[in-house]
Each structure stands twice: as structure tokens, then as C-alpha cells.
């Protein structure tokens, strides 16, 4: 196979190279998959530099999120997964160490079936962001459904044109919410609007909290804040009484400190979401989240969020894709199409 192997840590994605490697040998409980598309994530940038909390022993294949076709099924699956859920030829998406390659091994719980009508390109970026946003809004924030005469809630989505941001915008709209999305460029504001945001606000402006608050009825503020950036303190200024804040990440780069008196004065609930740990601590909840997501997909209320302003084809383009992600030049999920051996890149 071909892949991007890390033998020593690098300072920049530009140092990554593609090499020919032995095909991976699946363990008895693993599937072997031919990768057709690989999605990029911020933690990939940390991992290749040796700065992520989960670092495999060197050497290892970089990347994690992918979509592709099942080449072989487990030879000895666990009793609770026998017979295997997928068969040879099935189209799947998922995550496992080694996504920047043409072949990968993965356990069944790390795979999902590609939704009907979806391309490998869009499915590759579904496994991480979609459940993060769904779980954050529906499970942790307890987003209330609107419709049938019931008023939907107001939801503020920060980094509304990012991967989790666009997913959150769609989930909130599917629940009947009025969505305000923030972003830092005109292009990204347009993208957020195109995915359903009712209002868009440039958070480079100092007065953005006041702008958001004035959009709401009577200036009461938003009911829910979805924050993957680190804007909790400022968001308190436009949060309603009994408002809820979901902390998803700190893309701004700093772990912010929040004055607790603000939390008390508005009766605010601040909750965190560590989606990756649900598989360990609440595996039954993982299935419920995916059931909810697939319902939205089948109802046409959720679509792929792959970045389309520039095309990345071939593993050799992974460095450029990671650069676009790291330098905030992109929106949504930056996905690399992976032609199979002998297949044209055109």
C-alpha cells in the first residue's frame, strides 16, 4: 500500500512524504478497508508534531478519519458481533489510526455504513464532527424541539463554518431552532448561511455579543451557546436567563477563565463534551446518537460539510490539505480523495 508514515516527528505538514509500505494485516477482530477518501483534523497536526495526548509508538501511519470499501471481514469476531455487521464490498466510514493511506484496519465499533446516496468524499468527514455536534446540542444542552406550534430555541454556534460548526448549525435547524452563527471572514459567513444559519455575525468585531443579543426577541439573548473556540466569557453577555453553554473545544488556543458570578447571576448551565470518551464510559449512548443522526440524514436535514473551494486528490496532497486546515484557510471538513493503486487522479 501507499501511506504517510511518521518515523520521526515533524515541525510542519510540508515535511510529510508518501511511501510504499506493506499492506496492514488485520487482527482477528478487525476489518481491512480500501480507503477512498481521508478527512483532516486538527489533532492530526498535533500528532505529527508529537504534541497530542495519544501518541502511538514510532513508526506509525498518520491520519485517522476515512471512508472506503470493506476488503475483508474479521476472521474471529467477538461473540456479541458474530456474524460481522459488514460484508466484503460494503461502503463504510469511520476512524482508526492510519487514515492517510490506501489501506487500513479497523474494529467494527469504529465503522458506520455510508448513508444512501452519499459519496466517499462527504462520508469521510462524518465520523468525528457530526456526533460531536449532535451530542453537544441534544444530549448535553438538552436542545428543545420546535415546531407544531412550539417555539424553537435560539442557538449561537461559534466557528459556524468549521467542521463541528456546520454540523451544529444543521442539527439545531433540524430541531427547529433559530440559529446565529459566528465566523471570521465574509466567505465563512456566507458558507454558514448556506448551511441554514438564520443570522451570521463576524466575531472579529468587538461588539459581536451585543449584535447577537439584539437579534433575539426583546433582546433576551440566546438559549444555547455551542462553543468549540473558547468564547464562553463573552458569550455570557448575549445569553438568556436559564441559558446553557456547551464547551466543545478551544480552537482559539487558550483555555479561558470564566467569572463564576456570571454563571450564577443568569442561572446559567455550563457543560463540557468529550465525545471520544463516550465509547469508553457510555457505549450505549454512542448508538443512540448515531440513530438520531441517521434519522436526520434520511430526512434530508443533514448533508455533508466537505470543503469544496479547492480540491485535494492523492495522498501527496495531504500536506496542502493540512496546511489549509491549520492556517484557517478552509471551511467545513477538508477531505482528500484517495485514488486506488493504478487509478487516475483526474
Label the structural class: alpha/beta
Number of strands: 16
Gross geometry: globular
Count of alpha and pi helical runs = 11
- Weakly predicted, low-confidence segments: none
Could you estimate the helical fraction of the residues in percent?
A: 25-40%
Supply Rg.
21 Å
Cα distance, first to last residue? 20 Å
Could you give the order of the helices and strands? EEEEHEEEEEHHEHEHEHEHEHEHHHE
Overall pLDDT score:
94
Describe the biggest sheet? 6 strands, antiparallel
Strand content: 15-25%
Report on this structure.
The protein has 346 residues and is an alpha/beta fold. The chain is built from 11 helices and 16 strands. The strands form 4 sheets. Strands 4, 6, 7, 8, 9 and 16 form a 6-stranded antiparallel sheet that branches. Strands 12-11-10-13-14-15 form a 6-stranded parallel sheet, with helices on both faces. It has a two-stranded antiparallel ribbon with strand order 1-3. The radius of gyration is 21 Å and the shape is globular.
